[in-house]
C-alpha cells in the first residue's frame, strides 16, 4: 500500500465523447496498480445505463466500471446525481441513489435550482475523499459552456472545491483539436484556468512524432503542456455507458455464427447487458433497427427501457411484434430483460402515471404475466441460480414495477434469499429483471445449447480485468505519468 497522500485528479473534456471516461478508468487502474487506494467520482451523470450498488442504490454505470477498475465496491458518493432521460426532454433525477422526481431539461439547466444538488455533490466528494486516495474525478461534456457555467455542478466548480489537478482531454480524431483546446482553456476564468495542469490528446491516428510541433503550439497558445498523446485503439474493450456507441455497433447478420438480435429501442437502457455475448466467439450480436432484421435471427432479445410503455408502442408501430411472434412460432429463442420482460407479458398498467398518461397497454402475450408500474424503484444486487443449474450467478435489478406471474409459468431464477425471480414458458422463451444475467457463463451456455457449436470457455469477469490492465498499460506508454504524479503532490 502506497501511503503518499495525493491531491484529487480530474479529467475534463473539450466536449462530449472525447474519451474522459476511458482516461479516467485508465488512471483508476494505474493508481491501483501503483499501490494507492483510488476511487472514482462524477458529481452529475446523465445516462440510461445505471448500476445497483451493494446497498441497493443506483449510480451511473461508468462510475461502477471505474470502481471495478479501482478494485473497490461502488457507492452513491461516486455519482451523487444521476439524470435518466425518458422522453419529452424530461429526466428522472436520482439523488444519492434514490429517485427524487422528474424534471424537464429547460427547468434543470436554465433555472437556478441546482444549488441544493451542488451541496449534496460536495458532501459526497468530501465523504469519499476521507476514505480513498486519490479521488479520480470526471467532468461532463465541455468545460466551457459559458451559458451554463455558473449553474454547473460537474466540471470546474467542483474541481475548485476539490482543489483538483485538472487535465483536459481532447479528441483529435474528430478534428479541430487546436481550436477546441484553445477555446476550452482560454474561455475559463483565471482561477479555474490555473487548475489545468495538462492536455491529453486522445484518439490519435498515425505517427505521434508528427504532432511534436502541435504540442509546442498548444503550450505557446495556452501556457498548458501536452502531457500525453493517446493513440486510437481497437483491441481494448471497456464497458461504455454513452448510448452514442450504439451507432457503431453491428447491424449485420453473420452466417457462420449464432445470430443474436437485440431490438434497438428508443429508450433502451443498460445495453452493457450484452457485452459478454458480443465477445463470445460463437455469437454475432447485432442491433435490429427494423422488423425485417429479426427474420434470420436465431435469438431475439428485448432489452431494458426507461419508458417501457412508449417502447412497447414503438415495437408495435414498427412491426417488431409480428416478427417476434413469427420467430416464436418457429421455435426461436425469445428473451426479455427488465423492461423487455415486462413487454413480453399480457399487460402493463401504469395507474400512477409513472411513465406518462397511458394507463394500460396490452403486452406481447409471450408470457403469462402482468406488470403494474409502481412509484417505488427496486434497486438491488442479487446472487442467484439459473434454471436448474447449481452455479452461482450474479446480477442486479433496477426497475419501477411489480410483475405478477401466473401459475402456469415456471420460475427462472432462485435468489440466495430463496425467492423466485423471472419466469419461462419453455426453454426458448423467458424473461427476467436481472441485468447482468448474460455475464454468467452458465446462462450463455444454456442459450447456445441447441446450436451445433463448440462451447466457448470465455470468462467475462477475467476478460474485464485483463482489459483494465491493457488500458492502463496503453495509457502509461503514451502519457507522462511521472509528471502527473508530480502535479498531485501535496
Topology:
Elements (H helix, E strand, L loop, with lengths): L8 E5 L6 H14 L5 E3 L2 E3 L3 E3 L5 E3 H10 L10 E7 L2 E6 L2 E7 H6 L4 H17 L3 E4 L17 H7 L2 E7 L5 H10 L3 H4 L2 E9 L7 H11 L3 E6 L26 E6 L4 E2 L5 H4 L4 E6 L10 E4 L1 E2 L2 H10 L2 H10 L3 E5 L1 H5 L3 E3 L10 E3 L6 E4 L5 E9 L6 E7 L2 E4 L4 E6 L4 E7 L2 E4 L8 H7 L12 H19 L2 H7 L3
Annotated CATH homologous superfamily of the largest domain:
P-loop containing nucleotide triphosphate hydrolases
Q: Number of DSSP helices? A: 15
The CATH architecture of the largest domain can be given as 3-Layer(aba) Sandwich
Report the sheet with the most strands, covering strand number, pairing sense and barrel closure. 9 strands, mixed
Q: So what's the overall shape?
A: globular
Average pLDDT: 93
Name the poorly predicted regions. none
Name the beta content range.
25-35%
Could you give the order of strands across the largest sheet?
A: 15-13-16-18-27-26-25-22-23
Number of strands: 27
CATH top level assignment of the largest domain: Alpha Beta
User: What is the rounded distance between the termini?
Assistant: 18 Å
The domain tally reads 2
Helical content, roughly?
25-40%
Whole-angstrom Rg: 23 Å
Structural class by helix and strand composition: alpha/beta
CATH topology of the largest domain: Rossmann fold
Structure, explained:
The chain is of the alpha/beta class and 490 residues long. The chain folds into two domains: 9-237 and 466-487, P-loop containing nucleotide triphosphate hydrolases (Rossmann fold), CATH 3.40.50; 249-457, 3-Layer(aba) Sandwich (Rossmann fold). It contains 15 helices and 27 strands. The strands form six sheets. Strands 15-13-16-18-27-26-25-22-23 form a nine-stranded mixed sheet, sandwiched between helices. A six-stranded parallel sheet has the order 2-9-1-10-11-12, sandwiched between helices. Helix 1 (20-33) runs parallel beside helix 2 (61-70) and helix 6 (177-186) runs parallel beside helix 8 (212-222). The longest helix is centred in the C-terminal third of the chain and has 19 residues, at 460-478. It is globular and about 70 Å long. The mean pLDDT is 93.
